[in-house]
Amino acid sequence: MAAHAIPMEKQQVLTGSNASPSLTSNERVVDRAAERRLVRKLDLRIIPVLWILYLCNFIDRANIGNAKIAGMEKELNLIGQRFNICVWVFNLGYLVAGIPCTILFKKYGPRSLCVMMVLWAITVIGCGLVRTWQQLVITRLLEGICESAFISGAAYLIGAYYTTAEYLGRYVIFLTAGIIAGAVNGFISSLIARMDGVSGYGAWRWIFIIEGVLTIAIALACWFFVPPFPEDCTFLHGEEKELMLQRVREGGHNAHDTITFRDALKELSDWKIWAGVAMNLGVTENANSLANFQPTILKGLGYTATSAQVHTIPVYLTGAVVSVIICLMSERFNHRYAFYLLGCAILASGLIIEIVYPRSAGTKYAGMFLVACGAYVAMPISIIWVSINAGSGYKRAIAIAAIINFGTAGAFVSSNVFLFKEAPRFRTGFSTGLGLTCMGAAAATIYFIGCWMINNQRKKGEGETKTEPVSETSEVKKMGWEHPDFRFVL
Protein backbone atom coordinates (compact mmCIF):
# COMPACT_ATOMS: atom_id res chain seq x y z
CA MET A 1 0.00 0.00 0.00
CA ALA A 2 1.31 3.49 -0.83
CA ALA A 3 2.49 5.55 2.10
CA HIS A 4 0.15 8.44 1.34
CA ALA A 5 -2.86 6.16 1.56
CA ILE A 6 -2.32 5.21 5.24
CA PRO A 7 -4.73 7.27 7.39
CA MET A 8 -2.32 8.05 10.21
CA GLU A 9 -0.99 11.45 11.21
CA LYS A 10 2.38 9.94 11.90
CA GLN A 11 3.62 6.76 10.36
CA GLN A 12 6.69 4.67 9.80
CA VAL A 13 7.87 4.75 6.19
CA LEU A 14 10.36 2.40 4.56
CA THR A 15 12.74 4.04 2.12
CA GLY A 16 12.71 3.16 -1.55
CA SER A 17 9.66 2.32 -3.61
CA ASN A 18 6.38 3.48 -2.16
CA ALA A 19 4.67 0.40 -3.45
CA SER A 20 6.55 -2.29 -1.68
CA PRO A 21 9.50 -3.29 0.48
CA SER A 22 12.46 -1.17 -0.40
CA LEU A 23 16.18 -0.96 -0.56
CA THR A 24 16.46 -0.52 3.17
CA SER A 25 14.42 -1.02 6.28
CA ASN A 26 15.51 2.19 7.99
CA GLU A 27 12.47 3.98 9.34
CA ARG A 28 11.56 7.59 9.98
CA VAL A 29 8.62 9.20 11.70
CA VAL A 30 6.72 11.50 9.36
CA ASP A 31 4.90 14.65 10.41
CA ARG A 32 2.21 14.58 7.76
CA ALA A 33 1.27 18.26 8.14
CA ALA A 34 4.89 19.36 7.84
CA GLU A 35 5.38 17.15 4.80
CA ARG A 36 2.30 18.60 3.09
CA ARG A 37 3.62 22.12 3.67
CA LEU A 38 6.99 21.09 2.27
CA VAL A 39 5.48 19.52 -0.85
CA ARG A 40 3.42 22.65 -1.52
CA LYS A 41 6.57 24.75 -1.28
CA LEU A 42 8.41 22.39 -3.63
CA ASP A 43 5.52 22.56 -6.08
CA LEU A 44 5.73 26.34 -6.22
CA ARG A 45 9.52 26.46 -6.42
CA ILE A 46 10.38 23.63 -8.81
CA ILE A 47 7.58 22.85 -11.24
CA PRO A 48 6.72 26.37 -12.59
CA VAL A 49 10.25 27.27 -13.70
CA LEU A 50 10.80 23.87 -15.34
CA TRP A 51 7.37 24.17 -16.97
CA ILE A 52 8.30 27.50 -18.55
CA LEU A 53 11.63 26.13 -19.79
CA TYR A 54 9.96 23.10 -21.34
CA LEU A 55 7.37 25.33 -23.02
CA CYS A 56 10.25 27.06 -24.82
CA ASN A 57 11.88 23.71 -25.55
CA PHE A 58 8.90 22.24 -27.33
CA ILE A 59 8.04 25.43 -29.20
CA ASP A 60 11.57 25.53 -30.60
CA ARG A 61 11.48 21.86 -31.51
CA ALA A 62 8.06 21.76 -33.18
CA ASN A 63 8.00 25.13 -34.94
CA ILE A 64 9.39 23.57 -38.12
CA GLY A 65 5.91 22.17 -38.84
CA ASN A 66 4.41 25.64 -38.54
CA ALA A 67 7.20 27.24 -40.57
CA LYS A 68 6.67 24.73 -43.37
CA ILE A 69 3.17 25.91 -44.21
CA ALA A 70 4.16 29.57 -43.67
CA GLY A 71 6.34 29.62 -46.78
CA MET A 72 9.47 27.62 -45.90
CA GLU A 73 8.55 24.69 -48.14
CA LYS A 74 8.40 26.88 -51.23
CA GLU A 75 11.39 29.13 -50.50
CA LEU A 76 13.79 26.29 -49.61
CA ASN A 77 12.39 24.02 -52.34
CA LEU A 78 11.51 21.22 -49.93
CA ILE A 79 10.43 18.78 -52.60
CA GLY A 80 10.08 15.04 -52.10
CA GLN A 81 11.31 13.90 -48.69
CA ARG A 82 13.52 16.91 -47.98
CA PHE A 83 11.25 18.22 -45.25
CA ASN A 84 11.16 14.77 -43.67
CA ILE A 85 14.98 14.72 -43.60
CA CYS A 86 14.99 18.07 -41.81
CA VAL A 87 12.61 16.59 -39.24
CA TRP A 88 14.39 13.31 -38.51
CA VAL A 89 17.92 14.70 -38.47
CA PHE A 90 16.97 16.60 -35.30
CA ASN A 91 16.32 13.25 -33.66
CA LEU A 92 19.64 11.90 -34.89
CA GLY A 93 21.37 14.55 -32.78
CA TYR A 94 19.01 13.72 -29.92
CA LEU A 95 19.81 10.02 -30.17
CA VAL A 96 23.60 10.35 -30.37
CA ALA A 97 24.11 12.97 -27.66
CA GLY A 98 21.30 12.19 -25.19
CA ILE A 99 22.95 9.82 -22.71
CA PRO A 100 26.40 11.53 -22.61
CA CYS A 101 24.79 14.94 -22.13
CA THR A 102 22.50 13.63 -19.37
CA ILE A 103 25.56 12.29 -17.52
CA LEU A 104 27.11 15.76 -17.85
CA PHE A 105 23.88 17.28 -16.50
CA LYS A 106 24.09 15.01 -13.44
CA LYS A 107 27.72 16.02 -12.95
CA TYR A 108 27.43 19.79 -13.41
CA GLY A 109 23.97 20.41 -12.01
CA PRO A 110 20.56 21.80 -13.00
CA ARG A 111 21.70 25.23 -14.18
CA SER A 112 23.20 23.45 -17.16
CA LEU A 113 19.58 23.33 -18.41
CA CYS A 114 19.79 27.08 -19.07
CA VAL A 115 23.10 26.65 -20.89
CA MET A 116 21.47 24.05 -23.12
CA MET A 117 18.64 26.50 -23.85
CA VAL A 118 20.94 29.30 -25.00
CA LEU A 119 22.85 26.92 -27.26
CA TRP A 120 19.78 25.47 -28.96
CA ALA A 121 18.16 28.91 -29.26
CA ILE A 122 21.16 30.01 -31.34
CA THR A 123 20.55 27.08 -33.68
CA VAL A 124 16.85 27.97 -33.91
CA ILE A 125 17.73 31.51 -34.99
CA GLY A 126 20.07 29.88 -37.48
CA CYS A 127 17.12 27.96 -38.94
CA GLY A 128 15.55 31.32 -39.79
CA LEU A 129 18.69 32.54 -41.57
CA VAL A 130 19.49 29.56 -43.79
CA ARG A 131 19.46 29.89 -47.56
CA THR A 132 19.34 26.24 -48.62
CA TRP A 133 17.61 23.14 -47.34
CA GLN A 134 21.01 21.53 -46.69
CA GLN A 135 21.85 24.34 -44.27
CA LEU A 136 18.54 23.73 -42.53
CA VAL A 137 19.52 20.07 -42.09
CA ILE A 138 22.76 21.10 -40.34
CA THR A 139 21.09 23.59 -38.00
CA ARG A 140 18.40 21.05 -37.07
CA LEU A 141 21.07 18.44 -36.30
CA LEU A 142 22.88 20.87 -34.00
CA GLU A 143 19.58 21.81 -32.36
CA GLY A 144 18.91 18.15 -31.59
CA ILE A 145 22.33 17.75 -29.97
CA CYS A 146 21.84 20.86 -27.81
CA GLU A 147 18.34 19.79 -26.69
CA SER A 148 19.15 16.12 -26.16
CA ALA A 149 19.54 16.16 -22.35
CA PHE A 150 16.93 18.77 -21.47
CA ILE A 151 13.86 16.59 -20.88
CA SER A 152 15.79 13.76 -19.23
CA GLY A 153 17.63 16.27 -17.04
CA ALA A 154 14.41 17.98 -15.98
CA ALA A 155 12.78 14.60 -15.32
CA TYR A 156 15.70 13.57 -13.13
CA LEU A 157 15.56 16.87 -11.21
CA ILE A 158 11.84 16.42 -10.49
CA GLY A 159 12.46 12.88 -9.26
CA ALA A 160 15.29 14.15 -7.05
CA TYR A 161 12.93 16.25 -4.91
CA TYR A 162 9.78 14.10 -4.95
CA THR A 163 8.95 10.65 -3.65
CA THR A 164 7.86 7.79 -5.89
CA ALA A 165 4.24 8.45 -4.89
CA GLU A 166 4.51 12.06 -6.13
CA TYR A 167 6.76 11.68 -9.18
CA LEU A 168 4.34 10.84 -12.01
CA GLY A 169 1.84 13.56 -11.12
CA ARG A 170 4.50 16.27 -11.09
CA TYR A 171 6.15 14.98 -14.25
CA VAL A 172 2.92 14.94 -16.24
CA ILE A 173 2.17 18.52 -15.13
CA PHE A 174 5.66 19.42 -16.36
CA LEU A 175 4.93 17.56 -19.60
CA THR A 176 1.76 19.59 -20.24
CA ALA A 177 4.08 22.47 -21.15
CA GLY A 178 5.14 20.50 -24.21
CA ILE A 179 1.54 19.71 -25.06
CA ILE A 180 0.38 23.29 -24.63
CA ALA A 181 3.40 24.46 -26.60
CA GLY A 182 1.82 22.80 -29.62
CA ALA A 183 -1.23 24.98 -29.14
CA VAL A 184 0.82 28.10 -28.43
CA ASN A 185 2.93 27.40 -31.51
CA GLY A 186 -0.13 27.50 -33.73
CA PHE A 187 -1.33 30.76 -32.16
CA ILE A 188 2.07 32.47 -32.26
CA SER A 189 2.70 31.30 -35.81
CA SER A 190 -0.65 32.71 -36.94
CA LEU A 191 0.35 36.10 -35.48
CA ILE A 192 3.90 36.05 -36.87
CA ALA A 193 2.49 35.18 -40.29
CA ARG A 194 1.44 38.83 -40.50
CA MET A 195 5.15 39.81 -40.53
CA ASP A 196 5.62 38.26 -43.94
CA GLY A 197 8.00 40.48 -45.92
CA VAL A 198 9.23 42.59 -42.96
CA SER A 199 12.92 43.44 -43.55
CA GLY A 200 12.77 41.20 -46.58
CA TYR A 201 12.19 38.05 -44.52
CA GLY A 202 9.34 35.64 -45.07
CA ALA A 203 6.96 34.82 -42.21
CA TRP A 204 8.55 31.40 -41.70
CA ARG A 205 11.94 33.00 -40.99
CA TRP A 206 10.43 35.28 -38.37
CA ILE A 207 8.89 32.24 -36.64
CA PHE A 208 12.37 30.82 -36.02
CA ILE A 209 14.09 34.13 -35.26
CA ILE A 210 11.54 35.53 -32.82
CA GLU A 211 11.07 32.28 -30.94
CA GLY A 212 14.84 31.75 -30.72
CA VAL A 213 15.43 35.22 -29.29
CA LEU A 214 12.64 34.73 -26.75
CA THR A 215 14.22 31.44 -25.63
CA ILE A 216 17.56 33.14 -24.97
CA ALA A 217 15.86 35.86 -22.92
CA ILE A 218 13.88 33.34 -20.86
CA ALA A 219 16.94 31.13 -20.29
CA LEU A 220 18.92 34.07 -18.90
CA ALA A 221 16.01 35.17 -16.71
CA CYS A 222 15.51 31.66 -15.31
CA TRP A 223 19.20 31.11 -14.48
CA PHE A 224 18.62 32.35 -10.93
CA PHE A 225 15.41 30.36 -10.41
CA VAL A 226 16.36 26.87 -11.56
CA PRO A 227 16.65 24.87 -8.30
CA PRO A 228 19.96 23.14 -7.55
CA PHE A 229 20.18 19.50 -6.55
CA PRO A 230 18.67 18.93 -3.08
CA GLU A 231 21.98 18.79 -1.20
CA ASP A 232 22.75 22.36 -2.38
CA CYS A 233 19.23 23.68 -1.81
CA THR A 234 19.11 27.29 -0.55
CA PHE A 235 15.37 27.96 -0.60
CA LEU A 236 14.74 25.67 2.40
CA HIS A 237 16.21 25.98 5.87
CA GLY A 238 16.22 24.27 9.26
CA GLU A 239 13.72 21.50 9.86
CA GLU A 240 12.17 21.91 6.40
CA LYS A 241 15.49 21.26 4.68
CA GLU A 242 16.20 18.29 6.95
CA LEU A 243 12.80 16.78 6.13
CA MET A 244 13.44 17.35 2.42
CA LEU A 245 16.84 15.64 2.67
CA GLN A 246 15.27 12.69 4.49
CA ARG A 247 12.82 12.31 1.62
CA VAL A 248 15.67 12.56 -0.89
CA ARG A 249 17.52 9.73 0.82
CA GLU A 250 14.42 7.62 0.18
CA GLY A 251 14.00 8.77 -3.41
CA GLY A 252 15.81 8.74 -6.72
CA HIS A 253 18.74 11.12 -6.16
CA ASN A 254 22.18 10.14 -4.96
CA ALA A 255 24.49 13.09 -4.39
CA HIS A 256 27.61 10.94 -3.99
CA ASP A 257 27.06 8.63 -6.94
CA THR A 258 29.82 8.04 -9.47
CA ILE A 259 29.84 6.28 -12.80
CA THR A 260 32.30 4.79 -15.26
CA PHE A 261 31.91 3.96 -18.93
CA ARG A 262 31.66 0.28 -18.00
CA ASP A 263 28.89 1.06 -15.50
CA ALA A 264 26.95 2.92 -18.18
CA LEU A 265 27.23 0.01 -20.61
CA LYS A 266 26.09 -2.39 -17.88
CA GLU A 267 22.98 -0.31 -17.24
CA LEU A 268 22.20 -0.18 -20.94
CA SER A 269 22.40 -3.96 -21.18
CA ASP A 270 19.38 -4.39 -18.89
CA TRP A 271 16.31 -5.67 -20.77
CA LYS A 272 13.97 -3.58 -18.63
CA ILE A 273 15.39 -0.34 -20.02
CA TRP A 274 14.83 -1.55 -23.58
CA ALA A 275 11.29 -2.58 -22.73
CA GLY A 276 10.82 1.02 -21.58
CA VAL A 277 12.36 2.28 -24.82
CA ALA A 278 9.88 0.19 -26.83
CA MET A 279 6.97 1.47 -24.71
CA ASN A 280 8.02 5.06 -25.23
CA LEU A 281 8.89 4.66 -28.90
CA GLY A 282 5.49 3.15 -29.63
CA VAL A 283 3.64 6.28 -28.55
CA THR A 284 6.27 8.99 -29.14
CA GLU A 285 6.24 8.27 -32.87
CA ASN A 286 2.59 9.27 -32.92
CA ALA A 287 3.15 12.37 -30.79
CA ASN A 288 5.94 13.48 -33.14
CA SER A 289 3.71 12.86 -36.14
CA LEU A 290 1.05 15.06 -34.57
CA ALA A 291 3.52 17.87 -33.86
CA ASN A 292 5.24 17.83 -37.25
CA PHE A 293 2.44 16.94 -39.66
CA GLN A 294 -0.84 18.08 -38.08
CA PRO A 295 -0.77 21.55 -39.70
CA THR A 296 -0.11 19.91 -43.09
CA ILE A 297 -2.92 17.38 -42.57
CA LEU A 298 -5.38 20.09 -41.58
CA LYS A 299 -4.40 22.22 -44.56
CA GLY A 300 -4.99 19.19 -46.78
CA LEU A 301 -8.51 18.90 -45.37
CA GLY A 302 -9.36 22.32 -46.76
CA TYR A 303 -8.30 24.71 -43.99
CA THR A 304 -6.25 27.76 -44.90
CA ALA A 305 -2.69 27.98 -43.52
CA THR A 306 -3.76 30.33 -40.72
CA SER A 307 -6.89 28.32 -39.94
CA ALA A 308 -4.84 25.11 -39.82
CA GLN A 309 -2.50 26.72 -37.26
CA VAL A 310 -5.44 27.78 -35.08
CA HIS A 311 -7.21 24.41 -35.32
CA THR A 312 -4.22 22.65 -33.74
CA ILE A 313 -4.87 24.51 -30.47
CA PRO A 314 -7.95 22.59 -29.17
CA VAL A 315 -6.27 19.26 -29.98
CA TYR A 316 -3.29 20.00 -27.76
CA LEU A 317 -5.30 21.54 -24.93
CA THR A 318 -7.61 18.51 -24.77
CA GLY A 319 -4.62 16.19 -24.76
CA ALA A 320 -3.10 18.11 -21.85
CA VAL A 321 -6.23 17.93 -19.70
CA VAL A 322 -6.86 14.24 -20.35
CA SER A 323 -3.23 13.28 -19.72
CA VAL A 324 -3.17 15.03 -16.33
CA ILE A 325 -6.45 13.44 -15.20
CA ILE A 326 -5.52 9.88 -16.19
CA CYS A 327 -1.93 10.07 -14.95
CA LEU A 328 -3.08 11.42 -11.57
CA MET A 329 -5.48 8.46 -11.38
CA SER A 330 -2.56 6.14 -12.13
CA GLU A 331 -0.59 7.74 -9.33
CA ARG A 332 -3.55 7.62 -6.94
CA PHE A 333 -4.04 3.89 -7.49
CA ASN A 334 -0.28 3.28 -7.55
CA HIS A 335 -0.58 1.32 -10.79
CA ARG A 336 0.99 1.95 -14.18
CA TYR A 337 0.35 -0.96 -16.55
CA ALA A 338 -3.43 -0.70 -17.00
CA PHE A 339 -3.28 3.07 -17.44
CA TYR A 340 -0.55 2.78 -20.06
CA LEU A 341 -2.74 0.31 -21.97
CA LEU A 342 -5.67 2.73 -21.66
CA GLY A 343 -3.57 5.41 -23.33
CA CYS A 344 -2.64 2.97 -26.12
CA ALA A 345 -6.31 2.06 -26.64
CA ILE A 346 -7.34 5.72 -26.98
CA LEU A 347 -4.44 6.35 -29.36
CA ALA A 348 -5.26 3.30 -31.47
CA SER A 349 -8.89 4.45 -31.78
CA GLY A 350 -7.80 7.78 -33.20
CA LEU A 351 -5.36 6.16 -35.62
CA ILE A 352 -8.01 3.79 -36.92
CA ILE A 353 -10.26 6.76 -37.68
CA GLU A 354 -7.42 8.40 -39.64
CA ILE A 355 -6.69 5.18 -41.55
CA VAL A 356 -10.33 4.64 -42.52
CA TYR A 357 -10.31 8.24 -43.75
CA PRO A 358 -13.95 9.26 -43.39
CA ARG A 359 -15.35 11.72 -45.91
CA SER A 360 -16.16 14.16 -43.12
CA ALA A 361 -13.26 16.48 -42.30
CA GLY A 362 -14.82 16.94 -38.87
CA THR A 363 -14.62 13.21 -38.12
CA LYS A 364 -10.98 13.09 -39.21
CA TYR A 365 -10.30 16.14 -37.05
CA ALA A 366 -11.95 14.35 -34.09
CA GLY A 367 -9.56 11.44 -34.63
CA MET A 368 -6.67 13.80 -33.97
CA PHE A 369 -8.08 14.53 -30.52
CA LEU A 370 -7.96 10.82 -29.71
CA VAL A 371 -4.40 10.55 -31.04
CA ALA A 372 -3.29 13.45 -28.85
CA CYS A 373 -5.05 12.19 -25.71
CA GLY A 374 -3.77 8.63 -26.05
CA ALA A 375 -0.18 9.57 -26.85
CA TYR A 376 0.06 12.14 -24.06
CA VAL A 377 -1.31 9.67 -21.51
CA ALA A 378 1.01 6.80 -22.40
CA MET A 379 4.23 8.81 -22.87
CA PRO A 380 4.78 10.03 -19.29
CA ILE A 381 3.72 6.70 -17.81
CA SER A 382 6.27 4.82 -19.93
CA ILE A 383 9.07 7.13 -18.77
CA ILE A 384 8.26 7.39 -15.08
CA TRP A 385 7.21 3.75 -14.63
CA VAL A 386 10.62 2.44 -15.67
CA SER A 387 12.63 5.25 -14.06
CA ILE A 388 11.11 4.80 -10.59
CA ASN A 389 11.93 1.12 -10.86
CA ALA A 390 15.54 1.85 -11.84
CA GLY A 391 16.85 2.97 -8.44
CA SER A 392 18.70 6.23 -7.88
CA GLY A 393 21.55 8.43 -9.04
CA TYR A 394 23.24 7.74 -12.34
CA LYS A 395 21.30 4.49 -12.63
CA ARG A 396 18.05 6.43 -12.82
CA ALA A 397 19.57 9.18 -14.97
CA ILE A 398 20.73 6.65 -17.58
CA ALA A 399 17.37 4.88 -17.56
CA ILE A 400 15.49 8.15 -18.14
CA ALA A 401 17.91 9.29 -20.84
CA ALA A 402 17.78 5.96 -22.67
CA ILE A 403 13.99 5.77 -22.63
CA ILE A 404 13.51 9.37 -23.77
CA ASN A 405 16.34 9.61 -26.29
CA PHE A 406 16.12 6.15 -27.84
CA GLY A 407 12.34 6.42 -27.65
CA THR A 408 12.50 9.46 -29.91
CA ALA A 409 13.79 7.12 -32.61
CA GLY A 410 10.09 6.96 -33.43
CA ALA A 411 10.63 10.30 -35.14
CA PHE A 412 12.94 8.58 -37.61
CA VAL A 413 9.98 6.43 -38.51
CA SER A 414 7.30 9.13 -38.57
CA SER A 415 9.37 11.49 -40.68
CA ASN A 416 9.81 8.83 -43.35
CA VAL A 417 6.39 7.18 -43.46
CA PHE A 418 4.31 10.35 -43.84
CA LEU A 419 4.74 10.41 -47.60
CA PHE A 420 3.63 13.63 -49.25
CA LYS A 421 2.41 11.78 -52.30
CA GLU A 422 -0.23 10.33 -49.94
CA ALA A 423 -1.32 13.71 -48.55
CA PRO A 424 -3.72 14.35 -46.91
CA ARG A 425 -4.63 10.69 -46.22
CA PHE A 426 -1.14 9.56 -45.11
CA ARG A 427 -2.34 5.98 -44.87
CA THR A 428 1.21 4.60 -44.54
CA GLY A 429 2.03 7.03 -41.74
CA PHE A 430 -1.06 6.31 -39.67
CA SER A 431 -0.87 2.54 -40.26
CA THR A 432 2.75 2.53 -39.09
CA GLY A 433 1.72 4.48 -36.00
CA LEU A 434 -0.93 1.89 -35.21
CA GLY A 435 1.61 -0.92 -35.53
CA LEU A 436 4.04 0.87 -33.19
CA THR A 437 1.25 1.47 -30.68
CA CYS A 438 0.60 -2.29 -30.59
CA MET A 439 4.34 -2.84 -30.13
CA GLY A 440 4.33 -0.47 -27.15
CA ALA A 441 1.41 -2.32 -25.58
CA ALA A 442 3.21 -5.66 -26.08
CA ALA A 443 6.41 -4.27 -24.51
CA ALA A 444 4.43 -2.99 -21.51
CA THR A 445 2.89 -6.43 -21.06
CA ILE A 446 6.30 -8.11 -21.15
CA TYR A 447 7.69 -5.55 -18.68
CA PHE A 448 4.73 -5.98 -16.34
CA ILE A 449 4.92 -9.79 -16.36
CA GLY A 450 8.70 -9.76 -15.93
CA CYS A 451 8.63 -7.39 -12.96
CA TRP A 452 5.71 -9.26 -11.39
CA MET A 453 7.62 -12.54 -11.61
CA ILE A 454 10.75 -11.01 -10.07
CA ASN A 455 8.67 -9.56 -7.22
CA ASN A 456 7.15 -12.99 -6.55
CA GLN A 457 10.53 -14.70 -6.58
CA ARG A 458 11.97 -12.19 -4.13
CA LYS A 459 8.93 -12.44 -1.90
CA LYS A 460 9.36 -16.22 -1.71
CA GLY A 461 13.05 -15.75 -0.97
CA GLU A 462 12.20 -13.58 2.03
CA GLY A 463 10.51 -16.48 3.77
CA GLU A 464 13.40 -18.85 3.15
CA THR A 465 16.28 -16.56 4.15
CA LYS A 466 15.31 -13.86 6.60
CA THR A 467 18.15 -11.40 6.97
CA GLU A 468 18.86 -8.47 9.23
CA PRO A 469 17.65 -5.04 8.03
CA VAL A 470 19.98 -3.58 5.44
CA SER A 471 21.60 -0.29 6.40
CA GLU A 472 21.21 2.59 3.96
CA THR A 473 24.58 2.87 2.26
CA SER A 474 25.43 4.51 -1.01
CA GLU A 475 26.29 1.10 -2.42
CA VAL A 476 22.85 -0.28 -1.56
CA LYS A 477 21.15 2.74 -3.15
CA LYS A 478 23.31 2.38 -6.23
CA MET A 479 22.25 -1.24 -6.73
CA GLY A 480 18.68 -0.12 -7.35
CA TRP A 481 16.52 -2.83 -8.89
CA GLU A 482 19.37 -5.36 -8.55
CA HIS A 483 19.05 -5.39 -4.78
CA PRO A 484 17.11 -8.41 -3.44
CA ASP A 485 14.94 -6.21 -1.19
CA PHE A 486 13.83 -4.00 -4.08
CA ARG A 487 10.22 -4.39 -5.29
CA PHE A 488 9.04 -3.16 -8.67
CA VAL A 489 6.07 -0.85 -9.02
CA LEU A 490 3.57 -2.47 -11.35
Describe, in plain words, how this protein is organized in 3D.
By secondary structure, the protein is mostly helical. The chain is about 75% helix and about 0% strand. The protein contains 17 helices and two strands. The longest helix is centred in the first third of the chain and has 44 residues, at about 30-75. Mean pLDDT is about 85; it is low at about 1-25 and about 465-475.
The tally of beta strands, per DSSP, is 2
- Alpha carbon gyration radius: 23 Å
Termini separation: 12 Å
Question: Which parts are unreliable, with pLDDT below 50 for 5 consecutive residues or more?
Answer: 1-26, 465-474
Helical/strand content category: mainly alpha
CA-based shape: globular
Series of H and E elements: EEHHHHHHHHHHHHHHHHH
Count of helix runs: 17
The biggest sheet amounts to: 2 strands, antiparallel
Q: Provide the spatial order of strands within the biggest beta sheet.
A: 1-2
Helix % is over 70%
The portion of residues forming beta strands comes to under 5%
Round the mean pLDDT to the nearest integer and report it.
84
